[in-house]
Amino acid sequence: MEELNQLGQQAKSAAQTLALLSTSEKNNVLEQMANALIEKSHIILAANDQDLAKAQENGISEVMQDRLRLNEERVHALADGLRQVAALSDPIGEVEKMWVNEDGLRIGKQRVPLGVIGMIFESRPNVTTDAASLCFKTGNAVILRGGKEAFHSNLALVNIMQETLEKNHLPKGAIQLVHDTTRASSTAMMKLTDYLDVLIPRGGAGLIRTVKEQATVPIIETGTGNCHVYVHQDADLEMAKNIVVNAKTQRPSVCNAMETLVVHEDVLAEFLPMVEQALAFWHVELRADERALPFLKNAIPATEADWGTEFLDYILAIKTVDHLEEAILHINRYNTKHSESIITNDYMASQKFLQQIDAAVVYINASTRFTDGFVFGFGAEIGISTQKLHARGPMGLAELTSTKYIVYGEGQVRG
Amino acid sequence: MEELNQLGQQAKSAAQTLALLSTSEKNNVLEQMANALIEKSHIILAANDQDLAKAQENGISEVMQDRLRLNEERVHALADGLRQVAALSDPIGEVEKMWVNEDGLRIGKQRVPLGVIGMIFESRPNVTTDAASLCFKTGNAVILRGGKEAFHSNLALVNIMQETLEKNHLPKGAIQLVHDTTRASSTAMMKLTDYLDVLIPRGGAGLIRTVKEQATVPIIETGTGNCHVYVHQDADLEMAKNIVVNAKTQRPSVCNAMETLVVHEDVLAEFLPMVEQALAFWHVELRADERALPFLKNAIPATEADWGTEFLDYILAIKTVDHLEEAILHINRYNTKHSESIITNDYMASQKFLQQIDAAVVYINASTRFTDGFVFGFGAEIGISTQKLHARGPMGLAELTSTKYIVYGEGQVRG
Question: Residue B213 burial (CB < 10 Å; 0-12/13-18/19+)?
Fold first, then answer.
């Protein structure tokens, strides 16, 4: 596709310039971009109005409209986001380790940018400034392919950031938006092997699946989370209840929310009524297996499909197990390798769960909701990787970098 | 493809067992495998004879036959390779860092296996035992798809390793060979997204290109090396000559051999005759640009295609530049991001080259031939990555691992 090849060339060329910028040059530009967003918020809001008008015309849900909506306060939040990225320490140039080999060569492993990063994302315009700032801070060029619903908002944001780049004599190719929002541009991006060093999709399970099946560029899978909390027989049930309530209801639409409660049979009778009562406030629909049903007043029977579903809603599946091993087997079979938690005071059980569960993040006695780059202390998050290559779990600035070996010699040749 | 789906399922199941083995269990099995290879060397050599007979029948070159050939000494080398892998320290389980976040959660980043690794490789049977042992040591299941020329040899080696696995009550799915050696199995492997966590192709530029264009599983590109040595105006020319001779002739068929000499115009007259004389011993064919030609007796004119060619032979392209910046531009344009070296005593020039060259390994005053996992001190090498995601440069055991976050809580919920 012509547009993407052109964006790819410009991004690759810009990446060479970005890789050599000093930290203070990058931070300075990010601060200027933040100021520009606020100065030109009227332009952003006018563009956002266009998107919102179209959304209403198309009868898009109120929830989706809210995700799309910007106002003065939200534009300030976008600008603050850029300033926060400016304040983060810059991983580029850092030499992780350096040693002298047998030949007397001094070999160092130095952090460098990845090069050109592609992002495919859905409706929220804040991803545009978040992704652009994180990529810029790490010396990467970025090609953004946002959803058509947010096109005018995204375009306004990218235009303002590009104006700041130009004022600083930096190439516009550093931050670019794909104008074609048809499926064709998304597919072309997945095959842009000449230009993209990595493609990061952010969106629903459908998008992730399509990218995984079709992309020939390197990708980082993000975000689908079929997360479990397992309540072991000896759990502090009050603690377990609080964690289940938090993991299920604090923000049910996000990937680190819990979808299935796994319960040891010994505590069914005591624990399930506690959980049902606590979750009633949020009208959580309970879908329980045969053994759990008798202990619940308003549950419906769970189906096989429920074990593998990321509800992202006030719905909770409940699975009974005879022992820890069965809990581990169930979770490893149905999870999406995101976040899993055991509630127990049994040391051996906690260790076994920690080591045997295959997921990006495994918790003992804590809510799955903590899986987040900010909460982990990274100061940023470009997404949560659920694959094993390159990055796993919350991705901060370091995950947007690669390394190169730098070798200092004194004339050595290989014998 | 039926065969690959079956191998994939078995590998995925085996990977769960492998991930939990202790280091001593793994080392013990590797030692037993080494012993078994030697005890059953007659079976391996008989199988190798079949492959060699077929190679002769098909008129395959003597060089290729030599790559394929095994004998008692070489079988001992394979066994020694397994023992060396057993002796390496095991990265699995290592917690790279651990910290306490604001919520009081103790968060650790622990090394875990990748899961299932696929390898597509060409004729050399030693890749079979190398790859199998490195994957086994890191708790990964491996699916090996070797070239049809070495099929009987590979099968004998894998059978012996599987027998050792079975004796130790370990699943054969840990180390498997694809029996179908048609192109179809290779293509199917590139699309095996349900089972493969990563696919590592090892072979010529054609194989790498095909994998890069077709694979939808995560890959690590390896091995193509269009490497340069740049001789700056102030270089110690005696040192430069030794490095050029080493980088070009010590083993011209490998990826870290030099293909193009880049020379500053100021030293053309003095340096090129020195190089020509030194390389004459190996009958190196020189292909020089217009400005270099007058200083060489037996060179032929270089074409545009020569700048982008990995000769893997006694051929050297020679490019003249006016200044360092032109050298950097030329190298970044034509290189395969493998290994590049500058010969200079100018501090500022050396720093600029080190930072601005985009390659897995950048040298000052040393031969490109040092790019190698053993030379770097990793004790092993599964390949040399020329991509930026996950691993770059020589890959040892650590590059065959992923991480997971382990989080110790005391009932924390997200506010």
Answer: exposed
Q: What is the pLDDT of residues B4-29, one digit of tens each?
A: 999 999 999 999 999 999 999 999 99
Residue A117 has pLDDT above 90, yes or no: yes
pLDDT 10s digits, A145-169: 999 999 999 999 999 999 999 999 9
Q: Where in chain B is the domain with CATH 3.40.605.10?
A: 2-221+387-407
Identify the pLDDT of residue A77: 95
- Sequence-ordered strand ranges (E) for A122-268: 141-145, 175-177, 198-202, 227-231, 258-264
A387–B218 C-beta distance less than 8 A: yes
Retrieve residue A210's tokens. 């399509």
Taking the C-alpha atoms of residue A90 and residue B113, their distance in angstroms, rounded to an integer, is: 29
Q: What is the DSSP letter of B282?
A: T
CATH number of A2-221+387-407: 3.40.605.10
By C-alpha distance, the chain B residue nearest A403 is: B392
CATH 3.40.309.10 range(s) for chain A read 227-370
β-pair type (A106-113, A401-412): antiparallel
Angle at A266 between CA A265 and CA A272, to 5 degrees: 70
**The pair of three-digit structure tokens given for residue A238, joined into one six-digit string:** 């009050």
Single-letter amino acid code for the residue at B40:
K
**Residues A101, B246: C-beta atoms closer than 8 Å:** no
Q: Does the pLDDT of residue B123 top 80, yes or no?
A: no
Token pair 């997360």 in the structure block, residue:
A227
| Mean pLDDT of the A358-375 span | 97
> Measured between beta carbons, which residues in chain A are less than 8 angstroms from residue B410?
365-366
Mean pLDDT to the nearest integer, A384-403:
96
pLDDT band of A203, cuts 50, 70, 90: confident
Q: How far is CA B227 from CA A275, B17, B149, B311, B341, in A?
A: 64, 42, 29, 10, 8
Q: Shortest CB distance from B366 goes to which of A105, A198, A369?
A: A105
Helix (H, G, I), strand (E, B) or coil at A309: coil
| Mean pLDDT of all residues in A249-270 | 96
Give the total residue count for chain B. Answer: 415
Average pLDDT over residues A138-143: 98
DSSP, collapsed to helix, strand or coil, labels residue A384 as: strand
Cβ–Cβ under 8 Å, residues A277 and A296: no
Amino acid identity of residue B251, one-letter, is R
Query: Residue A144: pLDDT band by 50, 70, 90 thresholds?
Result: very high
User: What pLDDT score was predicted for residue A396?
Assistant: 94
Q: Is B409 helix (H, G, I), strand (E, B) or coil?
A: strand
Interchain contact, B411 vs A355, CB within 8 Å: no
B125 vs B123, higher pLDDT: B125
Among the four given CATH numbers 3.40.309.10, 3.40.50.300, 2.60.120.600, 3.40.50.2300, the one describing domain B227-370: 3.40.309.10
Nearest C-alpha neighbor of B71 from the set B46, B89, B92, B88:
B46
* Nearest chain A alpha carbon to B350: A408
For the beta carbon of residue B183, count every other beta carbon within 10 angstroms.
9
Q: How many residues does chain A have?
A: 415
**What residues contact B105, with CB distance under 8 A and at least 6 apart?**
A366, A370, B407, B408, B409, B412
Cβ–Cβ < 8 Å for A316, A284? yes
Residue A197 DSSP code: S
Residue B199 has pLDDT above 90, yes or no: yes
Chain B residues inside the 8 Å CB shell of A347:
none
- HSE, CB side, 13 Å, CA atoms: give it for residue A143: 32
Pairwise CA distance, residues B2 & B402, whole Å: 29
Indicate the average pLDDT of chain B.
Answer: 96
Residue B167 CB-half CA count within 13 A: 13
Map tokens 């604090």 to a residue: A250
Q: What is the pLDDT of residue B262?
A: 98
